[in-house]
Amino acid sequence: MMRRRPSLADRPRWLKPAAALLLLALSAGAATAQAPLHQRIDAAIAAGTPNYEKQAAPLASDAEFLRRIYLDLTGTIPSADEARAFLKDGTPDRRAKLIDRLLASPAFARHMATVFDVLLMDRRPAKFVPAPQWHEFLRASFAAGKPLDQLVQEILAADGADPKTRPAARFYLDRNGEPHQLTRDVSRLFLGMNLQCAQCHDHPLVAGYLQAHYYGLYAFLSRSFVFNDKATKLSVFAEKAEGEVTYQSVFDPTKLTKTTGPRLPSGPGLKEPALEKGKEYVVAPVKGQRPVPRFSRRALLPGLIAGADNMQFRRTVANRLWAMMLGRGLVDPVDFDHPANPASHPELLKTLTDEVAALKFDVKAFLREAALSKTYQRSSELPKGVEEASPRTFAVAAVRPLSPEQFAWAAMQATGLVDADRKALGTRATEAALYARLSGNVIPFVQVFGGPAGQPDDGFQATLDQTLFLKNGTLLRSWLAPRPGNLTERLGRLMDAGAVAEELYLSALTRPPSDEEKREVADYLAGRASDRAAALQELAWALITSAEFRFNY
Amino acid sequence: MKPFYACNSPEHLLSRRRFLAGTAAGGLGLLGFAGMVHPAAADQLRRTQKRVLVVWLAGGVSQLETWDPKPGTNTGGPFQSIPTSVPGVQICELLPHTARHMHRLALVRGVNTAEDEHSRGAYIMHTGRRQTPGEQFPHLGSVAARLLAPEDSPLPGYLHVTPRGEGVNRQDAAFLGPRFGSVALPDGNMPANMLRAATLTEAADRQRDGLRERLNRRFNQGRRTAETEAYTYSYDQAAQMMSRRGIFDLGRENPRDRDRYGSHDFGRHMLLGRRLLENGATFVKVTHSNYDTHHENFDFHIEQLGEFDRPFACLIEDLVQRGLWESTLVVVMSEFGRTPTINRNMGRDHWSRAWSVALGGCGVRGGAVVGATNANGTAVTERQVNGGHLFHTYFRALGLDSRRNHYHSGRPIPMADPQAAPIQEILA
Amino acid sequence: MSFFSRAARRAAGAANPTRTRLARELRHNSPLFSCRIDPTGRFVFAGAQDSLIHRWDLTTGQRVALTGHRSWTRALAFLAGPRQLVSGGYDGKVIWWQADAAAPAPLRTVAAHRGWVRAVAVSPDGRLLATCGNDNLVKLWSAADGASVRELAGHTSHVYNVAFHPDGRHLVSGDLHGRVKQWDIASGTEVRALDATVLHRYDPTFRADIGGVRSMAFSCDGSLLACAGITDVSNAFAGIGRPVIVLFDWATGARRHLLRPQANFQGTAWGVSFHPAGYIVGVGGGSGGALWFWRPTAAQSFHTLALPNNARDLDLHPDGRRLAIAFFDGAVRVYDMAPA
């Protein structure tokens, strides 16, 4: 049963009045702009697909929602106790309260730092800026609620010379300041346009991606280079005052050489100041000295990319934040925005683009609205009678693989490693202390489950070494061994199989077991009285290696 | 510019991963699990499946001491050339066993890769492209793993037998994804985590797997995707691979063969290569280290080629004898060749301007020699080729259209450099 | 060694290594890597990378090329009586030549070894010839007619050098692994093994052997044996290591000293000889070239002369004052140790 075309059956009843109301509201124009964003999202999503109501999945259960929102906002799953408390909470606004609580938690800033690190650096090894400093820069930025446009501007403005902003320079420096690499990544990350293909020629399939776009962007960066200051022993990003950009298409038989100044793909050409000969530099380039040009092309980049005038940046931010929560961009892939690849819901993307600005690039506020939407909160289970659901409709929640980091933290939570360490730390068990103590465990997961360094993560692949790592590796096995406060130790103290099943399922899968599952656990243990401790570890292993655990659903 | 490429739709190529889900979802699909294939069908599969063996002579083997000797010249060095099984074709005396199989091999003597640095030279030879910032091309092994390996093969598609391996290299596959990256068999040992924990009995392992599978079935009822299928199926693959780990055990080879191939590492590694290819491996790279002979080039080439020659000849012989030669492309390559000029330490340095690659087997015209260098080997005089030409040639030899594209997030990326073309002269 | 007459030894006593200076330069256009001076002292022979052996007349400077080998020649030795040169080449051949003929042509060619012939030595009585090579064998031949006398098997790697003890009853051979064997000539049995394995390293990174006994010599009285080569190799393929000469006490077989240059030098000791006055002379090549002098009583050299290029081999002139060195740059340079 693959999810593709939905059937007409089993129309979700709750949707009817709301959708009708919102559709009405939407069509009413400006007056309805006052409706909360999450409602406008739902209306737009519904409007995007004929017979949407019939295809849309119902709202997810509390347990399904709980696991998903934890993974999306904190990068891990809740503890069994947290799950119990939420599942007991009968108040109508319990989901909104949970969203707010998680957004306010230190775990949110931590998770965002991790997500943006992977996004911005593609798991490159640290070269000039230590990874922990970069991580802390990101974490502190999200903790302080720094607007995303400001964050991007800081990153694109940093050259590493000022110790205060040096961590932000990792984006440039740890790519060795390579202008082609940077051109690709700036366009991909901040403009949603992967211009890579346009480096050697106009994009062969995308009419909108021109070689001129590539080199216009490249011209901002081509004069820049990593300068190794012997005196301070620091490498910083420096720039020359000269160097014009020329290019030819490899497909052009006449080998016509073109030239371009700095310009954004959608932007105007820039007027560069004409400097008197000999006065191009504030600090002239001599050996061993970092040159400082009087006019810096690169200095224009942060304002042009992440400034108020760049609609394409807002649009990309909206699309990428949406994709973070919904598992797929409205424009998909997120770095392939061009007229021939339109958004699944163009009006919604327009709305979100505007809202990014209206919310002043407040990531929390944006994610909050996304999380409050029914679109986000739908079940990932196909509604009865629906055979398939196109992911473009967002009618059924996506089933997404955990990132290597989510997988590691969720497994540490499920096995009770986190609980045990929290117990061991006692009153010193702050988020930062636990992170410091446990984050080393993430490294082997990233090595085994992460994509290649320097490459954007591109889809999910199950590889044999990953499976063998989970099946036979020592790391997960060591987490399953009983230890005060961890899962198998807690289970070992429970004599009743039903209680074991409940603790096990809440801890690992964030939901209570079904009756069938309770019976399975009881049966499993019944034959294993002589080696019950081993049997409990096997049970925990089976849950953690199940597809249900591996995916955010 | 309108599409220059003979494009395939992104969907077509992206679907390969989903194919797996499709077959698994439809019961056992086309071929079912490899372990369950009927013996006759397995034999058929074995004959039709294309394989690749790359012998990587790390450090840069000297073309003058191998495929393009220049005895009696100021660059020729102390070795003579010897006749081979192909009249008129001579190779260096250090390869007497290989010389007897020359009619099965083709020589490309006009290679100019114009890159004298190890890692960049290796990149060209592994990917068929020069390194460019911002773009990473997949290894030949990764491409083979993706396009030639049966979806349900229990073996990783790209195996690397290497003296100093360290597990899995995700970089090799570039945008094709880690599934197609090389899996190292360090010093000929099996991959990591192949053995069940000593504390876990087989029965307990089966029991916990049974529970995992029941959980998956329930979860998949309403939520099956290609990805969840791929994940759950990977456990079946892992179990198969574990049960077939004898593939990696040279102890099971005939002692006579162990003697034939030699007791040194390279001999063992080549025998392992044979064993892997016989057991359904798609791409095997065997690294022989090391040829970076800046010092005492001649002493070292005696030693290293003395190890290389016999097992290489044995492997050709055995692939022929087993009926696998016609479906196995064999390539002997390095990051570059070595300078014709002999330096003051009787060494030869890095040299990419005029060197040679040998290949044979699947789709290759045995005994063909293409390209030539001048009298003392300092320049290509005839039919100069680079890494791009070689890649077109490999793909064509394997029956693949080398003008096809890979797709990376919807972007078409030519499988081989569009500015180069296959070396038709050596294609069968 | 045996070539040195009593008179020469007296003359040599007057030689002063610390005064060594370049006396003459004999040039060719192909790198040289072996050299020997004939017992009359008139000719210097050198093997070149053009696969020829070149003979210079030290009186006239005239050069004649000896054509016969199809590869490089590292092994040169003389039969004093019939004034013949015996050469061993990397083509596996041993060739006899009339050393003082106007244009020497091969008198006899013997296919001596499978693979390279790496060294040739003549017995003190001139009747036997010993050769060794890449087939891991040492072979004895009749010097008079080239007939095979005996094969000495036992080395497990390429045999790099061979030398007769002055007593005429024993022979030593040294291989790539630095294993030195003493053979009883009459019976062909291995008498004992000496350990020069300091001259070898298996580089685990590059997975190859580096080293070998590159040169070998007995002291005139037979009480000392010197084996030259490279040690402390940190990078086999760039040849980063130190030249060293292993000095054995022949009576006990114990290592007496590891002779090292006092100055920092990177490379291989390619040639070693005992001067009749008792000191040890060595040359090396690697980071340039150098000539070193040691006393058998001290590990550190007492004099070093920097050479203009990588040195590959050396031989002492029978006059005890001069020495010839073969260079990578194609020159044989003659140095004089006499007080100016």
Number of helical stretches of at least 4 residues of chain B: 11
The SSE string of chain B, one letter per element, is HHEEEHEHHEEEHHHHEHEEEEEEEHEE
> Within the largest sheet of chain C, what's the order of strands?
1-30-29-28
Number of strands of chain C: 30
Identify the strand order in the major beta sheet of chain B. 6-7-5-8-1-9-12-4-13
Uncertain stretches of chain B: 1-39
Q: Helical segment tally of chain C?
A: 1
Average of pLDDT of chain C: 94
- Give the distance, in angstroms, between the N- and C-terminal Cα atoms of chain B: 35 Å
In percent, how much strand structure appears in the residues of chain C?
A: over 45%
The quaternary organization reads as heterotrimer
Main beta sheet of chain C: strand number and arrangement? 4 strands, antiparallel
Q: Could you characterize what this model shows?
A:
With 553 residues, chain A is mainly alpha-helical. Chain A is built from 28 helices and eight strands. In chain A, the strands form four sheets. Chain A has a two-stranded antiparallel ribbon with strand order 1-2. In chain A, a hairpin with a 4-residue loop joins strand 1 (224-229) and strand 2. Chain B is an alpha/beta fold and 428 residues long. Chain B is 34% helix and 17% strand. Chain B has helices spanning 10-25, 39-48, 96-99, 118-127, 140-147, 202-223, 226-243, 255-261, 265-278, 297-321, 387-397, and strands at 51-58, 81-83, 90-92, 105-111, 158-162, 168-169, 182-186, 283-289, 328-333, 337-338, 350-351, 355-361, 369-370, 372-373, 380-382, 405-408, 411-414. In chain B, a hairpin with a 2-residue loop joins strand 16 (405-408) and strand 17 (411-414). The longest helix of chain B has 25 residues, at 297-321. Chain C contains one helix and 30 strands. The longest helix of chain C has 8 residues, at 6-13. The relative contact order of chain C is 0.15. At the B-C interface, helix 10 of B face strand 19 of C.
Architecture blueprint of SSEs:
The complex is a heterotrimer of chains A (553), B (428) and C (340).
Chain A: H1 15-27, H2 37-47, H3 52-55, H4 62-74, H5 80-88, H6 94-104, H7 106-121, H8 131-143, H9 148-157, H10 170-173, H11 179-191, H12 211-221, E1 224-229, E2 234-239, E3 245-247, E4 258-260, E5 281-283, E6 292-293, H13 301-306, H14 311-326, H15 346-358, H16 363-372, H17 374-377, E7 400-401, H18 404-414, H19 417-425, H20 431-438, H21 442-449, H22 464-472, H23 474-480, H24 487-492, H25 497-509, H26 515-526, H27 532-544, H28 547-550, E8 551-552
Antiparallel strand pairs in A: 1-2, 3-4, 5-6, 7-8
Helix pairs in contact in A: 1-2, 2-15, 2-16, 4-6, 5-25, 6-16, 7-8, 11-12, 14-15, 14-16, 18-21, 19-20, 25-26, 25-27
Chain B: H1 10-25, H2 39-48, E1 51-58, E2 81-83, E3 90-92, H3 96-99, E4 105-111, H4 118-127, H5 140-147, E5 158-162, E6 168-169, E7 182-186, H6 202-223, H7 226-243, H8 255-261, H9 265-278, E8 283-289, H10 297-321, E9 328-333, E10 337-338, E11 350-351, E12 355-361, E13 369-370, E14 372-373, E15 380-382, H11 387-397, E16 405-408, E17 411-414
Helix pairs in contact in B: 1-7, 8-9, 9-10
Chain C: H1 6-13, E1 21-27, E2 32-37, E3 43-48, E4 53-57, E5 63-66, E6 73-79, E7 84-89, E8 93-98, E9 106-111, E10 117-122, E11 128-133, E12 137-142, E13 148-153, E14 159-164, E15 170-175, E16 179-184, E17 190-195, E18 200-203, E19 208-211, E20 215-218, E21 224-235, E22 240-249, E23 255-259, E24 267-274, E25 280-286, E26 288-294, E27 303-307, E28 311-316, E29 322-327, E30 331-336
Antiparallel strand pairs in C: 1-30, 2-3, 3-4, 4-5, 6-7, 7-8, 8-9, 10-11, 11-12, 12-13, 14-15, 15-16, 16-17, 18-19, 20-21, 21-22, 22-23, 24-25, 25-26, 26-27, 28-29, 29-30
